Structures are given as structure tokens and as C-alpha cells.
Amino acid sequence: MLKVINVVGARPNFMKVAPIVAAMKRRPERFQPLVVHTGQHYDAAMSDSFFRDLELPEPDVHLGVGSASHAAQTAAVMERFEPVVLEQKPDWVLVVGDVNSTLACALVCVKLGVKVAHVEAGLRSRDRTMPEEINRLLTDQIADLLLTPSPDADANLRAEGIPAERIRHGGVVVLSGVDHKWVKAFRAPFHRGDNRRHLHEIRTRANDVDYFEHLVRDFRSSALRERTRKGDENHRLLKPLILYVRAFKNPPGSRT
Question: 238 — alpha (psi -120 to 50), left (phi > 0) or beta?
């Protein structure tokens, strides 16, 4: 059995870790998943609502890092995460995305000789003035397993000299086929009537938050028109879509 620590820090991480943890829990003979919340996203009420709405279990460990400068926040995550790794002795640590917690936890693991898997590896903006780009580049250099969302991400990693055996195409986790209540609800509205045309776009534009905001407006209007006939069904199914948009709209003052 593999003990896997799944790290979440900022809200976009929650959306991706939820179906991963759910998949691990359905295979208890193979995985023992733990959830560590670094507390990088320091709006407690918002973080708590994401754990509840995405049916994530309560974090096994909450580091409570909170807001700080990029350097101070990264250092604080490292300092508080290292004792957790030493105590838990995981086989793997899974980090997602490109936030400060992603890089900080990966650095701790590589120095302790613990294997790291990076979900959403290989994405690049080509803008090194962005803290997220630095987090992506460095995490991909030190992670043992790079799970990419797209062929261009595979190509980026190969161009940077990453050996092919470390690269695996994992697809867009948040829209994966994992049998998870949240993913089912997310997909359901798009199989109705004219909405089928959005299916391909969802897969190809999964990180385009403006596109999803447009879909929220579109389906909210549709749901409101139909509520008297179908009750609250369509309105309820909007919730995962709204959560997805909110996850990528960090409030003022939050850190990468």
C-alpha cells in the first residue's frame, strides 16, 4: 500500500485534489491518502466551504501558514511541512498547480529523498516575471513524476531536457472521468440539447476562467427560466461550475 500525502494550499488546488483523493479512497488496498492543507489561502470560511462542497475529507494536517511575502510564505510552508513528512514517512507526495505551496513542498521532499508527483506539470507562460512560472519551472525540474494535462505540456518538458520516463500524460484532472459526485454534477448540464456543443470546448479550454464565467451566466439564465418547470435541478447543477470559477478568482491580498 502506498501512503500518499496530497497537498492543497490555494483554492485552485482543491478542485484538482478532490477527484484524486476520491479515486484513491476507492482503492484502499492500494492507497492510503492523506490531505495536508498548508493554509496558503488564508480565508478560512472560503477554504472550509471548498472542503465541504467538494466532499474533501477534513485535512489530516493543517499547517496554518497564512499570508506573507512570497519568500516568507514559501519558507514557512517548508518549515512546517518538513516535520509532517518526517513523521508520516509517505511513499509519495502529490503537489498540484503552480502556487508557492507547490514548490515549497516539492523542495522539502527532494531534500528528504521522498518521491514527488506534480499534477499539471509542463504548463508554461514564458513570462518569468510571474511567480507562478518560477514555481512551475522549478517544481518540474525536481519532481519524480510529471503528470501533464496536454500534449504541449509534454513537449515543453522534453524541450527542457526532462527524461521521457518522468513524463506521463494525465489529462485535465478537474474534468477527468473519475467517478466523483462533483465531476458528474459538473458535466451533467452539458449533455442537454444545444449544450452538447460545449463538451469539446470544456476539454480544450479547461483553464480559461473567462470562458467558464460565460458558461455560468449562460446556464444560470437557462436554469432560472426552467426552475418553475423542473424545480431547482439546473440551479443545483450550476454549483460546481460556479465553484470552478471562484477557485481561480483569488481575492485581493491572497498570495500565489
Answer: alpha
CB-count burial class (<10 Å; 0-12, 13-18, 19+) for 201? middle
Cα dihedral angle (22, 24, 27, 32), rounded to 10 degrees?
A: -130
Q: Where in the chain is the domain with CATH 3.40.50.2000?
A: 2-174
Separation between Cα atoms, residue 16 and residue 19, nearest integer Å:
6
Please report which helix (H) or strand (E) contains residue 224, including its range: helix 209-230
The DSSP symbol for 144 reads S
**CATH number for region 2-174:** 3.40.50.2000
- Does the pTM of the predicted model rise above 0.90? no
Max CA distance (Å), the chain: 59
Contact present, 207 and 48 (Cβ < 8 Å) = no
Residue entry with cell 527524461? 163
Cα 224 to Cα 243: distance, rounded to the nearest angstrom? 18
Residue-by-residue DSSP string for 12-61? HHHHHHHHHHHHHHT-TTTEEEEEEE---S--HHHHHHHHHHTTPPPPSE
Q: What is the mean pLDDT of each run of 10 residues along the chain (256 residues)?
A: 93 80 92 92 59 71 88 96 98 95 97 97 92 95 94 94 93 53 46 48 51 58 48 49 51 45
Q: Return all residues near 129 (Cβ < 8 A) that are at least 6 apart.
A: none
The backbone torsions φ and ψ at residue 206, rounded to the nearest 5 degrees and listed phi first, read -65, -20
Q: What is the tally of helices (H) and strands (E) in the chain?
A: 10, 7
- Between CA 38 and CA 62 the distance in angstroms is 6
